[in-house]
Write a structure and sequence with these properties.
113 residues, alpha+beta, two-stranded antiparallel ribbon, 2 strands, 31% helix, 11% strand, globular
Length: 113
């Protein structure tokens, strides 16, 4: 999304991240991952927190990522944490339709059934 401002990339695992990022942040993280041994063989999702600068290094974030499928308790913990970062007033990812924003959910423009 080119309209979303750059921010601090946040990584998660377990397919629970819901958020936005822009192409510049994605490119920065991908280039950093190519040059970081700790990132090899790991999968992750990312979102960007607008208004926060990117870290000087992604080493600690890559080190914290696990290999393989995270445990259900780890996924539950990440989900609970990431829910606090959702934009908008109504933080209900089950109401978010593909291609819609949380701002549209708040405005009542999304009627997910």
């Amino acid at each position: 999304n080119d309209d979303w401002p750059s921010g601090r990339p946040v990584f998660s695992q377990g397919d629970v991240a819901v958020g936005r990022t822009n192409r510049e942040d994605v490119a920065t993280v991908l280039v950093a991952a190519l040059d970081n041994a700790s990132a090899r063989g790991k999968t992750f999702e990312m979102l960007s927190l607008k208004g926060y600068p990117a870290p000087a290094s992604f080493d600690a974030a890559f080190d914290a990522l696990g290999h393989g499928t995270p445990s259900s308790s780890a996924v539950d913990a990440q989900y609970a944490l990431l829910q606090q970062l959702l934009p908008g007033v109504e933080q209900d990812p089950t109401r978010l339709e593909m291609g819609r924003s949380y701002e549209q959910v708040d405005a009542g423009e999304v009627d997910r059934q």
